Amino acid sequence: MKKGLVLEGGGLRGLFTAGVIDVLIEQGIVADGMIGVSAGATFGCNYKSKQTGRALRYNIAFKDDPRYMGLRTLLKTGELVGNEFSYHILPRELDIFDNETFKNNPMEFYLVCTNVDTGEAVYRKIDSFDDHNLEWLRASASLPVVSKPVSIDGYRLLDGGMADSIPLAYFQSLGYDRNIVVLTQPHGFRKKRPAIYPLMKIALRKTPKIAEAMANRHIMYNKQLDYLAEQEKTGNTLLIYPEKELPIGRLEQNEAKMRNVYNMGRAVCEQRLDEIKRFYGQE
Hints:
By secondary structure, the protein is an alpha/beta fold. The protein contains 13 helices and 8 strands. Strand 5 (150-152) and strand 6 form a beta hairpin.
């Protein structure tokens, strides 16, 4: 039996996931492998490096820094997130990512990106976060319209959530047959086509496959929710999700809200610890 952990994205909603994985670390609950999409990857990598509190800490510490992310960064660079600062300076110098622990932890780590030229998912196994693989991490979380495609290893890549928002089926195809899936939307949520899609289509006219993926994302996402429900009934999948809609926007950098969402993740995980341990056979 291979135990997997699947983490969807959601921008700052991902701090709910950060709260969940921090409790897992503190309780010594380990998976054999994990896969993250967008914020699920950028925050989830701290599970393998065993750095509790890191995702919340740096998001609060640098929320007002124009080098990190926000409108000022977008207007200055054409990118919502400051690439060099966020993916190289911050993890190397300011809130140091423990790459040695990450490398020495036998847990496998995968992330998901979207191929700009095909609209299809691209999966990448990461064994170490050198500068090259940090660019793969950046690609997984690079939102369309507010980010430029990341060119790496012959691909042009953007946020993985457009092609495979909740990659449970892919992880099962790798042999992970007992999976915990952490969602950032409450039970019963259904995604709708964004009302601003006509404007997004214009903004994405130079990347038609991304425009197509965005147009169909709600269909893909809702099918994945149906698949999760089916897999949960079989007993091979455990779903963890917020009890209600998370009180934070995808890009909202409000400290009180960030702490609240993080604590909501901790609370849900703590409430279900016995269930999680039984599911993983780690009682």
